[in-house]
Amino acid sequence: xxxxxxxxxxxxxxxxxxxxxxxxxxxxxxxxxxxxxxxxxxxxxxxxxxxxxxxxxxxxxxxxxxxxxxxxxxxxxxxxxxxxxxxxxxxxxxxxxxxxxxxxxxxxxxxxxxxxxxxxxxxxxxxxxxxxxxxxxxxxxxxxxxxxxxxxxxxxxxxxxxxxxxxxxxxxxxxxxxxxxxxxxxxxxxxxxxxxxx
Length: 198
Description:
Blueprint: H1 14-32, H2 39-46, H3 50-57, H4 60-85, H5 93-106, H6 110-120, H7 127-145, H8 151-169, H9 180-190
Helix pairs in contact: 1-2, 1-4, 1-6, 2-3, 4-5, 4-6, 4-7, 6-8
């Protein structure tokens, strides 16, 4: 009789466990916001104990700040990659469109979007989160300055991104078929990329 050997159990390293908890925290904070999410809720989402989350990250505030920073870092990395991929002409709508497409791709991760929005809205009343949110916006602007665009062009691009955030947060693209003014706004805001966020 031949018996099969069980596959060896692989243990996660510290970095992998940290990523697992950060991903779970992103989902939990996206759903409940900063005020409505406890470290216990994050622990349950991650499948670990609450003391483990506290040992790894300290406070709920520190955990939220790290989750928020990760979301902004993903946005800056996407913009930087697109800017570096080919020469960027700030007078070219197509080049700004490349950045817009990169951002629209990120918006498919609704949790990333909602964590960012929580940091920019109600949670920003917490002084440390407000400070971090201001630093994050500054980092996005610094990244966009590499386009060579004017302050006005960067402002308009940023404003368009915030409009997309609001539309995705309220699930406007998912209700596009209902027509009306919201559908028209979503069509105008997303253009051809609307189908990628529906």
